[in-house]
């Protein structure tokens, strides 16, 4: 009765059903993981700031320290300041201002101090003396963040994106002694009369923000699709079995009718 389920056509249907169920389950888990990751990053950003040296080491990946608030005290290195051109703030094209901070323990922390619309803005002036900077630790940018064309040379005092290799090449910042990432300034002490526009962390490094109910609906939606695929497969199999039973019953009845209607054999008299 059920041997037809092992024919090539039906085996292909079984494989397609399994693939559909597995795909829907994976997409559902993916939606759940995206939300958990987003929630975790928000929680990290809400933690109290701690010393940058407690969270990161020179040249090492930030790892779980990314998105944490950190405090660094030191002196800006004016000669190594760089502008990152082609960055938009509130619909206006301008530049990020990145200034390396030499900390008391010898680490060099690239600080994204903010945004200016004019490279000659007074806010680009580098403050002298010791400063304390509080901000968010963020991983290095990638070439995808660059607004310049591939292969295009940027002017002196500018980098295409914020990364150790760019700062090492353009500003002479040693990757071995520098933070592998940058600190997005939130507060600075002492405050300056003229400073770049402070940037919001959610604008610089946005987190995919999904509400719990929206994420729950996405997760449930893919699992409902998985259940629907199972129901569809069961329905197809049951329909196939039902069709073959009807065919076998009809064939048996037809065989019985043929036996009844057949004439009895005649016997010659002895």
Automatic annotation (TrEMBL):
<comment type="similarity">
    <text>Belongs to the SURF1 family.</text>
</comment>
<dbReference type="Pfam" id="PF02104">
    <property type="entry name" value="SURF1"/>
</dbReference>
<feature type="transmembrane region" description="Helical">
    <location>
        <begin position="12"/>
        <end position="30"/>
    </location>
</feature>
<keyword id="KW-1133">Transmembrane helix</keyword>
<dbReference type="InterPro" id="IPR045214">
    <property type="entry name" value="Surf1/Surf4"/>
</dbReference>
<feature type="region of interest" description="Disordered">
    <location>
        <begin position="246"/>
        <end position="270"/>
    </location>
</feature>
<dbReference type="InterPro" id="IPR002994">
    <property type="entry name" value="Surf1/Shy1"/>
</dbReference>
<protein>
    <recommendedName>
        <fullName>SURF1-like protein</fullName>
    </recommendedName>
</protein>
<dbReference type="GO" id="GO:0005886">
    <property type="term" value="C:plasma membrane"/>
</dbReference>
<feature type="transmembrane region" description="Helical">
    <location>
        <begin position="218"/>
        <end position="237"/>
    </location>
</feature>
<keyword id="KW-0812">Transmembrane</keyword>
<keyword id="KW-1003">Cell membrane</keyword>
<keyword id="KW-0472">Membrane</keyword>
């Amino acid at each position: 009765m059920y041997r037809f389920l092992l024919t090539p056509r039906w085996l292909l249907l079984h494989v397609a059903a399994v693939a559909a169920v597995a795909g829907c389950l994976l997409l559902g888990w993916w939606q759940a993981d995206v939300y958990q990751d987003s929630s975790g990053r928000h929680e990290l950003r809400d933690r109290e700031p701690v010393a940058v040296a407690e969270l990161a080491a020179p040249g090492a990946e930030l790892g779980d320290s990314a998105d944490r608030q950190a405090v660094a005290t030191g002196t800006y290195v004016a000669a190594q300041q760089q502008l990152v051109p082609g960055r938009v703030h509130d619909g206006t094209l301008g530049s990020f201002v990145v200034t390396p901070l030499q900390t008391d323990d010898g680490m060099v922390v690239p600080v994204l101090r903010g945004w200016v619309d004019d490279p000659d803005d007074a806010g680009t002036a580098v403050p002298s003396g010791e400063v304390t900077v509080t901000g968010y630790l963020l991983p290095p940018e990638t070439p995808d963040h660059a607004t310049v064309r591939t292969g295009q040379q940027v002017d002196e005092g500018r980098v295409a994106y914020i990364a150790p290799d760019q700062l090492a090449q353009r500003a002479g910042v040693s990757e071995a002694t520098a933070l592998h990432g940058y600190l997005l300034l939130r507060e600075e002490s002492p405050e300056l009369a003229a400073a770049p526009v402070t940037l919001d962390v959610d604008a610089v490094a946005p987190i995919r923000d999904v509400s719990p109910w929206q994420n729950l609906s996405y997760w449930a939606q893919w699992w409902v699709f998985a259940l629907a695929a199972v129901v569809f497969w069961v329905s197809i199999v049951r329909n196939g079995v039902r069709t073959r039973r009807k065919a076998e019953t009809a064939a048996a009845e037809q065989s019985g009718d043929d036996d009844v209607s057949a004439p009895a054999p005649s016997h010659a008299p002895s």
